[in-house]
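Notes for week 9. Today we move from apo structures to complexes. The key idea is that a small molecule is not decoration. When we ask for a structure prediction with zinc ion present, the ligand SMILES becomes part of the input, just like the chain. The input block below holds both the sequence and the ligand string. Read it once before you look at the output, and try to guess where the molecule might sit.
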Amino acid sequence: MAYLHCHTKNCGWSQDDFWYFKLKNPFYIIKDNIIRRKPYISLGKNTLHFNPRFLGYNPLSLIIEDLFEYGRPRWIGFDSFFIEENNFKYRQGKEFKEVFSWRLLIWNIKRNINSLFKQKWWAYKYWKKDYDNGAVCPKCGERNFDID
Ligand SMILES: [Zn+2]
């Protein structure tokens, strides 16, 4: 994965890691599950763990990941700062403020759909092509890109 951002002082522009779509060979999913014990789908404590990276890294794979993470209805404890920053409705749990899982699911799905419109360069190849043609930072107009 590669995180594109701008190094111009006080600019702060950045975007999500470049996306890629790659359907992983089902043979390797089975091999990873059985031989390497690195499960793509496994039953954990009360929850189904799922590694969606068999579809690469993109909004669809992230939504699938969220469905598995937050699909089961339950209350999940979070840091107060995260709850207040995002204005979540919550209940007070024993230790933490808790948000209902489906609220997080909807929030994450919206975020991933929004990223389709906000992500300036979806994949490295599009950025590289634009960069070679003189692309500048969409915020400050300089050419101080960095990729981590
Ligand atoms: Zn910039």
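The pocket of zinc ion is lined by residues 6, 8, 11, 13, 137, 139-140, 142 (CB under 6 Å).
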